[in-house]
Design a protein that fits this description.
Blueprint: E1 3-6, H1 14-27, E2 31-34, H2 47-59, E3 63-65, E4 74-77, E5 86-90, H3 97-109, E6 119-125, H4 135-150, E7 154-160, E8 169-175, E9 186-187, E10 193-203, H5 209-228, E11 235-242, E12 251-260, E13 265-271, H6 278-295, H7 301-306, H8 308-313, E14 315-324, H9 329-341, E15 345-350, E16 355-363
Parallel strand pairs: 1-2, 5-6, 9-14, 10-11
Antiparallel strand pairs: 2-4, 3-4, 6-8, 7-8, 10-12, 12-13, 14-16, 15-16
Helix pairs in contact: 1-2, 1-3, 1-9, 2-3, 5-6
């Protein structure tokens, strides 16, 4: 009997779809997701969501029904996870490659026959767009974090950038299957900011765009950090101009990250739009980073929700100090999905300071066909 998942709960967007299908594939539990993206205009699946579902179905040898553009319900009946191999997914549009990675990465980590041979995942579509992590955020914030705290080994190579609205980007991921269960972690001490790094990327635009984005970000960060810290914090932001033959359309963006003494990392970003001044774009990314730093957690709100699924799958107890205020809707949604489809259990603790600690008792997942994986 299929487990029924209401796609309109909480955040009510594509995240429910991605996390549900991934956990369905890993657990072997068939699911029926209805009211998909019910609150969006228009509701239902877009190219990006359909492509992600088809990719998951291929990796998990699954039967997939209802996965057409505009559909508001699908059924996903998983089979056996495939052995490490080569997989390709193309959203055709500027659909986010980083969101496609979110659905595929946990599946490739638990290949049915773990080996030292990595899977190769080629994702085509948008690399730098709004409403999704930029590929530079994934490369410099998300992947370093999961490598350090969960033991996940991946490599990323941007073959071609794809800016909105043309897309056309291509990213190659190399994912090494796990030889043991995901390890749990505790990150409750933030520490001071060790350094700030960043990338200001642009393509098919005048040469002054990159340095202007860098200057805008550096000026704002320097002023704020001088006010808040008695010691100098190194700031290193690179300007990167893409070759004209290495991108389909013109575009720009800035991704910044602050490395913390406790091992945490905070990201901030902004994507260029028509008519926005380059220096203001740099300032916008700096403001986003400063908001994350001001919240006082060990991770930013975007990293916070992306690691929930790994906390659920890990062996033992994990804990993470998050920023002040209520947990973000995306984070609460990720927790809800994990508890619907696994035996993982989460609880949150509100501190007097206003910060929140997320704690999770993970399931120590390993595929049933891979009982020799130690936990």
């Amino acid at each position: 009997m299929n487990i029924s998942i209401n796609g309109s709960v909480l955040e009510g967007g594509g995240q429910i779809l991605r996390n549900s299908v991934t956990l369905s594939a890993l657990s072997g539990k068939a699911i029926h997701i209805h009211q998909i993206r019910n609150g969006r205009k228009p509701p239902g699946l877009k190219n990006q969501h359909r492509t992600g579902l088809q990719l998951a179905a291929e990796i998990a040898s699954a039967k997939l029904t209802g996965a057409t553009n505009g559909s508001t319900e699908i059924e996903f009946t998983p089979g056996a996870l495939k052995t490490p191999g080569d997989f390709v997914a193309d959203s055709v549009t500027a659909g986010s490659t980083t969101l496609l990675l979110q659905i595929a990465l946990p599946l490739l980590l638990f290949a049915s026959q773990p080996s030292k041979t990595p899977s190769r995942l080629t994702l085509k579509g948008g690399t730098n767009a709004t409403h999704a992590p930029q590929i530079d955020y994934t490369e410099n914030v998300f992947l370093p974090f999961v490598r350090r705290f969960f033991g996940i080994r991946t490599e990323l190579q941007v073959n071609r950038r794809g800016y909105y609205p043309k897309g056309g980007g291509e990213v190659l991921f190399s994912v090494t299957p796990l030889s043991q269960c995901l390890k749990s972690f505790g990150l409750l001490e933030r520490g001071n900011v060790r350094c700030i790094k960043g990338i200001a990327h642009f393509a098919k635009l005048p040469g002054h765009i990159g340095p202007s984005m860098v200057d805008g970000a550096k000026k704002l960060l320097s002023v704020r950090l001088a006010e808040d810290s008695s010691s100098s914090i190194p700031i290193e932001i690179q300007s990167r101009r893409e070759r004209n033959d290495n991108t389909v359309g013109a575009g720009s963006g800035v991704v910044l990250w602050a490395e913390l003494e406790g091992g945490g990392i905070i990201g901030g970003s902004a994507v260029g739009t028509k008519g926005i001044d380059a220096s203001l774009l740099g300032e916008k990314a700096a403001q986003d980073l400063l908001r994350g730093l001001d919240a006082g957690g060990c991770v930013d709100e975007w990293l916070e929700d992306q690691i929930i699924i790994f906390m659920a799958l890990a062996e033992g107890d994990s804990a993470i100090l998050c920023g002040k205020g209520e947990l973000q809707l995306h984070t609460r949604t990720a927790i809800w999905v994990a508890e619907q489809l696994t035996e993982a259990r989460f609880n949150t603790e509100q501190l007097e300071s206003g910060h929140t600690i997320i704690r999770c008792k993970g399931i120590g997942y390993r595929p049933s066909a891979s009982s020799d994986i130690p936990c």
